[in-house]
Each structure stands twice: as C-alpha cells, then as structure tokens.
Amino acid sequence: MSDPRTPAVELGKLHVSWADAPGIRGFFTTVDHKRIAARYIVTVVLLLFLAGMLALDMRLQLARPDMERMTPQLYNESFSLHGSTMLFLVSVPVMEAMGIWLVPLMLGQRALAFPRLAAFSYWLYLGGVLMLWVPHAFGITPDLGWFEYPPLSGPAYSPGHRADIWAQMITFTEVAALAASVNIAATVLKMRPPGMTLPRIPLFVWAMFLASLMTIFALPAVMMVTSMLIADRLVSTQFFAAAAGGDPVLFQHLFWWFGHPEVYIIFLPAAGFVSMIVETFSRRTLFGHAAVVLSMLAIAALAFGLWVHHMFAVGLPRLGNDFYTAASMAVALPAGVQIFCWIATLATGRPRFDTPLLWVLAFIVTFVIGGLSGIMTASAPLDQQLTDTYFVVAHFHYVLVGGAMFPLFGAFSYWYPKATGRMLSERWGKISFWMVFGGFNLGFFPMHILGLQGMPRRIYTYGEGMGWGPLNLVASIGSAIAVAGGVLFVANAAWSYFRGRAAGPNPWGGSTLEWAAPSPPPQHNFDAMPVVDSLTPLWTQKRELAVMTGLAVDRREVLVTSVVEAAPEYRQKSPPPSTAPLLAAVAVTILFVGSIFTPWALVWGAVPVAIGLTLWFWPQRERSTTGPLRVRNR
Amino acid sequence: MSDAVPTRVVGDLSDLPESASGASHLVWWGNIGFMAIEGTAFALAAGAYLYLMSQTAGWPPDGVRPPDLLWPAVLTLGLFVSEIPNLWVRRCAKAKDERGVRIGTLAMTVLGLLLLIPRGIEFGHLNVAWYDNAYGSLTWMLLVLHTSHLITDIGDTAVQSVWLYTHEVGDDQFADVEDNANYWTFVVLTWIPVGALVYLAPRFG
C-alpha cells in the first residue's frame, strides 16, 4: 500500500534514481544487490549441476568392483574438481550471495554499504570459476584433491600448472568472499533500521555478520598458503621444502586454520536460514533467541581452536591432540543448544509443514547424524582408524549437505516467492524434497559402514574380494536418486518462474522486514525507511508498519545509523551503477592469471589494477576554484 | 506500486546531515574491515615465521649472517617521524581544512616515496636470498608483504592528493583523507612486529 504522504511523483523519481540502465549496459554496470546475488546464485546452480554430474560419474565407477571405465588419473581429477568446486565455488559463495540478497532487505535498506564492492565481488568470483573450469575444458585439471598438500603439490612432484590453477582459483574466490564479508559486516553494523538495537537483529543477519567476521579472520590464511605454494613452485622459495629448512606441515596448519572455520562459515548462515524458517512456520517467536545468538558466537570463536583435528594422523604431540579433541567436542554444546531451541520452538508453536520446513526437519536429522560421527572423528585415537576412509566421506557429506545444503534448499523455497513474485509448486517441491533427502541418506549412510570396513577414500576402484560391492551399489543408487531430485528442484524453480501462482508480499506470514517489500522488490526495495520496535516487526505492527520518510528521492541515498542503538546518524550517498567494478576485476584477473606464469605479473599487472581502482574511487565533483591547480578559464 | 504493507509515518530523516566523520562514517568501517583482513595476514605470516623458527635448529641457518641494521633503522625512524605530518593531515581532515589536506597529502606522498629508498636498499642487505632456505623465504615474504602495503598507501595518497588539488573538496573527501591517514598509521604500526621479526629474531631468537 502506498504511503499517502509519498506522492506518485516522488515515487516516480525514486524509481528513476535507482533504475539500472537498460539492456546489456545495465547488465555490466549494475550495483543492485539483488541482481548481483541472483547472478551469484545462477552461477552456483550451474556449478552444482556440474559437480553433481562429476559425483554421479564417480558413483557409477564405484557401483561395482573392478570397474575400468575411469582411469585413476580421471578419477583423481574428478574428485579434485568436485571437491574444489563444492567447497570454494559453491558453498561459501552461495552463502555470501544469500547474505548479499537478504541482508539489505531484512534491514529495510535500499542497498548494501558498498554496492560497487558487491559487483566487484561477483566478477572476481566468476574469474575463479573460469580459472578452474576453462583449463578443465582444455584438459588441464587439478588432480590432488580439494586440499593440495605439499610435497605432492610442490615443484618436484607436480610439474605443469594443475596445482597453480587450483591455488590461484582459491585466491580469486577468497578475495571475492572477503570483499563480500566486509560489505555485509559494515552493512549490519551501520545500516540497521531505526529501532533495530542489537537484541532486535534477525538471526539470519546475526549469522551473516558472524560468518563475515569469521571470513575476515580465516580466509587470509588460505590465500597466504596458496600464494606460498605458488612461490615455491614459481620462484623457488623453500617454505614447504624440508631439505631447505621448510616444513610441509606448515601448509597443513595454515590450510586448516582456514579450512575448519570455513565449515562454520558455511554452517552459520545455514543455521540462520533454519532459525528464520522455524520461526515463520511455527508461527511463534523463536524460543531462546539470545541463547541461539550466543551459541553462534561460541561456535564462531571455538571454530578457530580446532583446526588440528584435521591433522591427527600427522604425528603431532599427543598433548596437542588431546586439546584439539576436547575443543572439537566442545562445539557440540552450542550446536546442541541451537538444535534444542529450534525443537522447542516447533514443539510449542503451531507448525505448518510446507516444503521449507521439511528441509529444516531434514537438516535437523541429517546434521545430528553428522554431528555424532563428528564427535567420533574428533576423538584422536578413533580418528587414527577412520581417517582417509569412507567414514570421513560420509561424515563431511552429512555435515555439509545435511548441515548447509538442506537449509539452503529450504531457504530457496522460503524466499523464492519474495525474489520472483511467484510460488513454487508445493507438490513438486515435496517430491523433489523426498527424493533428495531419501536419496542422500541411501547414498551416504552406507559409506559409514564401508569406512568402518576399511574402504579408503579416493580410490578409483576396488577388488571384488573386499566385499564392498553391495553397499557401494546402494550408495550409487541413492546418489542418483538425490541428483535426480536436485534436477527436479531446479526444474520446479524454472517452471514456477513463469507459471507459478502469484505470491503476494508475504505468502508465509513472515515476521521480518523483507516481507514488507513487494514481491519481487523494486530496485529501491522500500519506499520509506521502516522503523523497528521488536524482533518480529511485521507481527507486532500488524496494522501499519512505522516508517520514516525524508531520504532523497532524486538521487541514491541510504540511511546510516549508530552501531549499538541503530539511531539515525546521517544520510549517505549510495554510488550509482558503474563499469569500474568489472574493469577492476578484469585487471585483477590479468594479474592473478599472469602471476602463475611469471612473478613479474605482480609488477606490470599492478598498473591496470591501479588504474581500475582509481577510476572506481575517483569522486565526481566540480573542478576546484581554489588552490594552485584550480580551473582558471571557466 | 510501493511498499506492500500499510505504513504510518513516524519521523522525518531529511534534517539529518549528508556526511559524517570518524567512526560514524560508513567508509570508516570498511577501512577497519580491510585492516582486519591485512592484520590477520600479517599475524599469520608472523606465525609461520615463528613456527618454522621453532622447528629449526639454527636461526638464521649456519653460514647466514642476520640482516644488516642500518637501513631498517633509517626506515623505522622515518616511519615514526612520518606520523607527525600524518596525524597533522588527519587533524586537518577532521577540521575540514581544505588547504591543509592538500598540502598534507602531497607532503605524505613525497615522504612516502622517500621512505621507499631505504626500503629498497634493505632488500639488498638481508644477507640471504629467498631461494636459499626457508629462513630466507620467510624473511623476504614478511618484507615484501609490508612493502606492498607501503606502496599501496603511497599510491592511494598520491591519487588522493591529485584529486584534492584539482577538485572541490566535500565532506566525504575529508572523511576519505582521514581514513587514508588511519591506514598509514596501520602500516606504520604493523612494521613494529614485522620489523622486529625480520631484524631482531635472527639475533636474539
């Protein structure tokens, strides 16, 4: 409903101020957080399909003993590409994308803090995607798994550029994720709507904020370590060369300093989805809001204290192993508190079992199983037996698919109507849900048993005498069903985009501000700045939502508020569309790609980067009329 | 079409200022975010250095002299002295003194470029090449990492100075100058632990 005090002329101006240029120009210059997030998500869906096909190919190979349809080299490339794609190009980016899309909407804002940085983030992420997949199209594929330990990945054992491609793909995606994280963190701190004090921040926004902080403190480690690897390979530094005083274990420490928090960087946003979905579909405020926030904080802090549990088999001091066992098990406490709060909300609410909630229930079941196998592998003595077996493969698929992908599919189902204005088909949504959930468990549960029976991970085939055939066949059938369910899920989204029932602004009766905008939201999201009086503003302000007017309509402007109280401080100009983020990303791409061939790329490649950034940040103001360089002949 | 729910106007934001400075300003927090990223990188690089140092019997390895001290001493002194004009520029930015920020950023650019001279000579006095051993690799890594920050900030200051001299300076630009001055302080402060590792750890470690 239009605010009576915002005349149509003013609204028209607002639309014009925030509109992208039409056509291809708008495509390359847009800084609209929704468009940027959408292209992130479309890219991710494409990659999910490719990674799923790789998984199917591998499962086909393992379905029976003594299969020869894949060579060992092809198998190595397949799991390396699958793992690297899923961890670096799907899981983290898709969570960033959801944050880029949702955070401004949940905060009642028209844009992110740094719109151009968000555009830059996507273009650079796309550079990472191309860095991995274009060489693959030419037959140059990383083949050492998703963590490429030296010395195997070092200059002596991995000539050529397979390892460099992997390492530099990481640099691309991590710079992209860091840019997105700074953007989201600043937005959450300084752009909350009036009245949204810290205790009134929606849980998804909390989750994205904490995940962004974790990204800021974790991702530099993997950028550094892969750069050190490239340096060892390119300019003969000796970081990981034991013969020259280096240490390959240093690689593992730095990699897992990033790698373990990464799991929670993926999991926290997923937990945020779960909290929002549980609240809406239980039709009551979340039980234990403060406890859930504190649990997420505890998880974020503890996540930095357990990286060594990925290295129990390395032969580190036993006291160290004991510490990391204890720290790893400690994570179960805050994770458990969250789960109890969700269950309590469902138990005391009036749950409606639509597709988004089904995904959440599937998450709870699957994640608990993954958590329990996690407690088992957290125990150093048991881990010595289980490491590098299919038990670990089962464990991390349970926590990553169950813990992150299921909530993500729930989130897609939940916010799809807001993004597109159309409802997904519930019927096909439920069919695809049962196929993915059933197929996944059929596919991955047997792997626990295979692991306990001693089947190592990363083998391209096995002998019939091992007795692993039947369970592997079951696993392959389950995986195929899950992949088919995934395809159906996407097909449902594609079909509903054109044929789905009109959604209206708030089809689920949600409580947070994104449901106050039209579906799909216009480019400026909200006509006026919402004012928040509770955690669930749309439930407590049922009749009318309080808003503040006065932001400019003839130019792009956003409200900046104070960090703790969210009191209005000033009106900030929001930058218009620009080609600068794309040009800067292309310049950075040239530098990154060049630097796997010659160290001098860091020097000459810096010139276009500097030009790109200067164009980006060059403020558009009048020429000076004072000082020695003033305009003299105006 | 407009907001999808009925609304009630409870206040007006048009009286708010159009800019702010310091921690009130949005960009200040973006700057802090990037300092946190880079600070983490420095801390991890220092951690890597200390880790390998603890794993190695001789540090520096036998036959390698520790890096010479004269040029880093000149640079360190220069960095500390540079904080005087830097903090002055920052104060000019807060006071919205147009002439002050123009002169100040120009002076900081020149000073920064001068400081690259001792930094360049430092590389020739490390007494180890990056490819000799892991100690050499780490020494070079720390120094390259810090130098890249020096160069970035000098470049930023130079661009800022050109812009300030040629354009009307507004509140947002004063805030940018303040952020840039803060960043220089960050680069100076990070040198204390990094420099200590490169030059003192091989002597006293």
Automatic annotation (TrEMBL), chain A:
One MF term in GO for this entry?
A: metal ion binding
- Membrane-topology descriptor: Multi-pass membrane protein
**Where does the protein end up?**
Cell membrane
Q: Which GO terms describe its biological process?
A: aerobic respiration; electron transport coupled proton transport; respiratory electron transport chain
Record PROSITE patterns: COX1, COX1_CUB
What GO CC terms are in its UniProt record? plasma membrane
Specify one Pfam family.
COX1
Give the family this protein belongs to, as stated in its UniProt record: Belongs to the heme-copper respiratory oxidase family.
Q: Identify this protein by name.
A: Cytochrome ubiquinol oxidase subunit I
